[in-house]
Design goal:
single chain; about 425 residues; alpha/beta; FAD/NAD(P)-binding domain; Enolase-like, domain 1; 7-stranded mixed beta sheet; 5-stranded parallel beta sheet; 25 strands; about 25% helix; binds flavin-adenine dinucleotide
C-alpha cells in the first residue's frame, strides 16, 4: 500500500486552492496527493451556472490550475477515485476496487451534494440538477435543443440558471414556495428589484407554489403544481439547495453536527485531520457562533489556511463570509450574515441598477449587499463587518462617501480581529 505525507480528499475548489498554497509554500514533490470522485482536475464551480452554461467558457478555461502545474510540482491527482471507506485509526482511505492509500495528514474537502426532489410521476428522471461539470454540460445541451423550461427553486442556482436560460432564448418559468424571490436572505425591496429584472427578461414566476409531479410526455414533460396548474416544458432544472457531503464519515470518530466540526485552525476532532469548504462547520470569530458557508470564497480561503496549517503554520481562520453572484448584466456581492438584524439602510439608485443594502444588529454592521457601487463601499463593508463596527445607520444613509464615517465610527470595533 502506498502512503502519502498529505492527502486532500475531494478535488473541488478548496482542494485546488490548497494545492496552490502547497506550491507557494515550497511543498516538496511527491508529498501531496489529491483524490477526487470526478474525472477532472480541480475546477471552479461558479462558472457552471454562468459562462460555462452559456458555452462561452470551456473546461480548460475553468481549471484552477492546469495539468502542467500538478506535473511540474509533483502533486499526484487520482481522478475517478471515489473514496468508499475511511479508517482514521489506521489512517487509510479505501477507493474503488478496494484500492488502499495511507495518509499521515489529511484535508477533507468533500463539498456538498445536491438535494433531490422525491415526486410523483414517471417524468421525475427528467429533472436536472447542477453541481458538477457533467451536469452543466447536460443542461447546456438541453438549452440548445429546448424552447421551454421550468426552474424549481429561487436560490442562487435557480436564479442564475433561469437568467442564463432566459438570455439564451428559452421560455422560462420559475416555481418556488415563497411569495418572493430571495425571501430567506434579502429584504422585500431587494426581492422586488430582482423580480423586476427577471420579469423584464421574460421570466415568469409561479410563487407560493410547489411541484408535486412531473409526467413524461412524448416530447418533454408536464410539470404539475400543488395549486393544480400545469406547465409544459422541454426540460426541468431544480436548484433546491445542497447538503454537506458527510456520508463517508458516518460511524467514524469524526465529530460532526451540521458539518464536520473544526476549530479555528480548521482542525477536526481527529488529530492531523483538517476540513475546509462547504463541509466544514467552523467557529466564526466576528459572529461568535458556528457557521458553515456554501460559497466559493470560503472554500478558497479555508483551503489556503488549512494547507498552511498542515504545513506547520498556526493560523486561525478569520474572514467575513462572502459570496458573489451574476444574473443577466448584474453582478452583486454580499458580505456577512443577516441573522437577528434589527435595521436596514439602503443606498444608491435601484432604477440605475446601483444599489447597496446594509443590515445592522444592535447598531453594529452585520451584513451588506453591494451592486454597481463605488469601490470604497466594497472595502468598508467587509472591514466593518469583520470588526463588527458600531455605526450610526442614519449617518450611513446620509454620507456621500464613507471615508469620513470610517474615521468617526469604523474604528469603534466591538471585536478586533
Ligand atoms: C453551479 C454552481 C454555481 C456556484 N456559483 C457560486 C457563486 O456564484 N458564488 C459563490 O460564492 N459560490 C458559488 N458556488 C458555490 C461554490 O462553488 C462552492 O461553495 C465551492 O465549490 C465549495 O468548494 P468545496 O471544495 O468545499 O467543494 P466542491 O467544489 O464541491 O468539491 C468537492 C469535491 O469533493 C469530491 N468528493 C466528494 N466526496 C468524495 C469522495 N468520497 N471521494 C472522492 N471525492 C469526493 C467531489 O467529487 C468534488 O470534486 C456555486 C456552486 C455551484 C455548484
Amino acid at each position: 500500500m502506498k502512503s502519502y505525507p498529505m492527502i486532500i480528499l475531494g478535488g473541488g475548489v478548496a482542494a485546488g486552492y490548497a494545492a496552490k498554497e502547497f506550491v507557494a509554500r515550497n511543498g516538496k514533490a511527491g508529498k501531496l496527493l489529491i483524490v477526487t470522485a470526478e474525472n477532472e482536475l480541480p475546477y471552479e464551480r461558479p462558472p457552471l451556472s454562468k459562462g460555462f452554461l452559456t458555452g462561452k467558457k470551456q473546461a480548460g478555461d475553468i481549471r484552477i490550475s492546469d495539468a502542467a502545474f500538478y506535473r511540474d510540482h509533483g502533486i499526484a491527482v487520482f481522478r475517478n477515485f471515489p473514496v468508499k471507506k475511511i479508517n482514521f485509526r489506521e489512517r487509510i482511505l479505501e477507493g474503488p476496487s478496494g484500492r488502499m492509500i495511507g495518509f499521515e495528514r489529511l484535508l477533507i474537502a468533500t463539498g456538498s451534494t445536491v438535494r433531490r426532489l422525491n415526486l410523483r410521476g414517471e417524468g421525475q428522471s427528467k429533472i436536472l440538477y447542477l453541481r458538477g461539470i457533467k451536469d452543466s454540460r447536460t443542461i447546456l445541451a438541453k438549452i440548445e435543443a429546448g424552447k421551454r423550461a421550468v426552474v424549481i427553486g429561487s436560490g442562487f442556482i435557480g436564479m442564475e440558471v433561469a437568467s442564463v436560460l432566459a438570455s439564451q432564448g428559452v421560455n422560462t418559468t420559475m416555481v418556488f414556495p415563497d411569495d418572493r424571490v430571495w425571501k430567506r436572505l434579502f429584504t422585500a425591496p431587494v426581492s422586488a428589484f430582482f423580480e423586476d429584472q427577471f420579469a423584464g427578461h421574460g421570466v415568469a414566476f409561479m410563487k407560493s407554489d410547489k411541484v408535486v409531479a412531473v409526467n413524461a410526455k412524448p416530447r418533454g414533460c408536464q410539470v404539475v403544481l400543488a395549486s393544480g396548474s400545469t406547465l409544459d416544458a422541454d426540460f426541468v432544472v431544480a436548484g433546491i439547495g445542497v447538503a454537506p457531503a458527510l456520508e463517508l464519515f458516518r460511524r467514524t470518530a469524526l465529530e460532526m453536527r451540521d458539518g464536520i466540526t473544526v476549530n479555528e485552525f480548521l482542525e477536526t476532532s481527529v488529530p492531523e485531520v483538517w476540513a475546509a469548504g462547504d463541509v466544514a462547520s467552523y467557529p466564526d470569530r466576528a459572529f461568535q457562533r458556528r457557521l458553515r458557508v456554501e460559497h466559493w470564497d470560503n472554500a478558497v480561503e479555508q483551503g489556503r489556511v488549512a494547507m498552511r496549517n498542515m504545513m506547520g503554520a498556526d493560523q486561525p481562520f478569520i474572514h467575513a463570509p462572502y459570496f458573489f453572484s451574476d444574473v443577466f448584466d448584474l453582478s452583486y456581492e454580499f458580505w456577512g450574515n443577516t441573522g437577528g438584524h434589527d435595521r436596514v439602510v439602503y443606498r444608491g439608485r435601484p432604477d440605475r441598477k446601483q444599489l447597496s443594502v446594509w443590515w445592522f444588529k444592535r447598531r453594529s454592521l452585520c451584513a451588506a449587499l453591494i451592486m454597481n457601487r463605488p469601490q470604497e463601499e466594497r472595502e468598508f463593508a467587509s472591514r466593518w463587518i469583520l470588526r463588527r463596527a458600531q455605526l450610526d445607520p442614519q449617518a450611513l444613509q446620509r454620507a456621500r462617501n464613507l471615508k469620513s464615517l470610517d474615521a468617526t465610527f469604523g474604528q469603534q470595533a466591538c471585536f478586533k480581529p
